[in-house]
Q: What sequence folds into this?
């Protein structure tokens, strides 16, 4: 059978968030990613999908890019799929993917990004006995993502003739916009 691992909200960055005590936050995050990749390798899983916010900012430091690319090179037998989250692209718009580190990594074929209901194709499994799992990407605030969240079910996400399809989505869950309900770290510390 075809197997996948899904992760989300990695927020890869060098600077340690104020609310963390890690001496080297980048190493902590890379350690967690290494754990996921090792689990995948040990269990013969050849695809990992990230449902957005792989990075904490649209552009990463050279240290973070280098470390992440080295990690992926160490696991070249595992294909990394990703959709753009609001932290991954300038202006929280998947249309600006080209101006982000995630976009550069996609163009360089280090990982594969899909955003507007598109099929991830670079590592698609297709055999006569196991047609595999199709994965479609829905990045933050794209037209396809908005349609999906409004209750639409695209035909390609239906189980057709034994074919399984999965949508990898980065979006707030629920009917309300919750941007105004999150307290900043400084507000939490002030209590």
A:
């Amino acid at each position: 059978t075809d197997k996948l691992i899904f992760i989300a909200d990695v927020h890869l960055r060098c600077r340690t968030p104020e609310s963390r005590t890690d001496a080297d936050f980048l190493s902590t995050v890379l350690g967690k990613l290494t754990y996921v990749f090792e689990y995948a390798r040990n269990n013969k899983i050849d695809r990992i999908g990230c449902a957005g916010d792989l990075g904490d900012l649209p552009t990463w430091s050279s240290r973070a890019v280098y470390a992440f690319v080295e990690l992926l090179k160490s696991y070249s037998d595992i294909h990394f799929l990703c959709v753009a989250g609001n932290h991954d692209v300038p202006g929280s718009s998947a249309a600006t993917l080209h101006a982000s580190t995630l976009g550069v990594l996609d163009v360089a074929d280090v990982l594969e990004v899909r955003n507007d209901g598109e099929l991830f194709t670079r590592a698609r499994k297709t055999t006569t006995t196991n047609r595999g799992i199709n994965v479609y990407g829905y990045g933050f605030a794209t037209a396809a993502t908005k349609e999906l969240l409004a209750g639409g079910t695209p035909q390609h996400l239906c189980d057709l003739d034994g074919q399984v399809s999965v949508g990898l989505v980065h979006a707030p869950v629920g009917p309300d916009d919750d941007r105004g309900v999150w307290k900043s770290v400084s507000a939490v510390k002030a209590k």
About this structure: The helical segments are 25-42, 62-74, 101-107, 143-149, 185-190. Strands lie at 5-7, 47-50, 79-82, 112-113, 116-119, 133-138, 164-169.
